[in-house]
Amino acid sequence: MTRIYAAVSNKGGAGKTTLVTLLAGEYALRGDRVLLIDADGRLNLSGWWRLCQSKNNVPENISLIVAAAGRTIATEIARLRSLFDLIIIDAPGIDGTVQETIIGCSELVLSPIQPGIKEIEAAGQAAANVCAINDRRGSHILHLNVRTRITIPGRNLEAYRYIRPFVVGLRQAGYETDLLDTELFERNVYREIQNGLGTLQMQELSEPIRKARQEVLNLVEEIEARQRAAIRGDAA
Ligand SMILES: Nc1ncnc2c1ncn2[C@@H]1O[C@H](COP(=O)(O)OP(=O)(O)OP(=O)(O)O)[C@@H](O)[C@H]1O
Ligand SMILES: [Mg+2]
To answer: What pLDDT does residue 68 have?
Structure first.
């Protein structure tokens, strides 16, 4: 069965595209055939892809298409899903019907949260949108939040300390969402790969890369554990 993930936050610059490339690299390394859908009309993900092509750094096991309109996203998924193990959709940093289509196509929606009030609110909005779609369709799309661009001093920020209680508050308000324990740190390599260096997993294994790889591996393992738990919960 092809899994479909999406990175969704209506806050521009929240970290969606970065998260998408990190996850894609990890799954591709495991041998999964990964399709990336750039659903953002500003084409950041495709820009990275083009640079990778021009520098001969196209990642193995990853393909990319652009589909920025709701109908095209659904048609392309229907056309291509049998060819891939995992599809990851990079959503635009705005609200609207495209976001709704993207969520509706997915089984897992990930919202990156930087320690900033706008990013936190945008993740809350994504959680609400996922729940509204689940309620309407009787579906079980999972929504998870992942902290990103975290630094050690940044953990003292009020906004950082507000993230967990905010997500707890969402759950208490009836939204099925959760916060992953794994955080993505602010790392130079996460920026640098955007310049066409391929995926994180293609970089030479220096100490900073090893740390980044471990972080992303932890993230994938946690995501999968949450998915298994959600499936068990549904079955119960
Ligand atoms: N964990 C991180 N460490 C370092 N830089 C990061 C990290 N996450 C994101 N960035 C940087 O922050 C900027 C915005 O990130 P990104 O493009 O992933 O966000 P986005 O949500 O996709 O934005 P948009 O809504 O504009 O598409 C980029 O320059 C990216 O390199
Ligand atoms: Mg983006």
So the answer is: 86
State residue 97's pLDDT score. Answer: 87
Neighbours of 110 (CB within 10 A): 27
pLDDT at res. 236 = 62
Give ligand 1 pocket residues (Cβ under 6 A): 9, 12-18, 40, 44, 93, 148-149, 184, 186-187, 190-191, 194
Q: Which domains does the chain have, with CATH numbers?
A: 3-235 (3.40.50.300)
User: Which residues in the chain land under pLDDT 70?
Assistant: 235-236
- 13 CA to centre of ligand 1 in angstroms: 5
Q: Which of 18, 90, 102 has most ligand 1 atoms within 8 Å of CB, for mutation?
A: 18
What pLDDT was estimated at residue 235? 65
C-alpha distances in angstroms, 225 versus 181, 184, 219, 222?
12, 17, 10, 5
Amino acid at 152: I
- 41 CA distance to ligand 2 middle (Å): 10
H-assigned helices in 174-206: 188-192
Backbone angles phi and psi of 190, in degrees to 5? -65, -30
Edge-to-edge strand ranges of the sheet holding 34-38: 62-66, 34-38, 86-90, 3-7, 108-113, 142-147, 178-179
* pTM reported for the whole predicted model: 0.97
Closest ligand 1 atom to 184 CA: 1
Strands 62-66 and 34-38: parallel
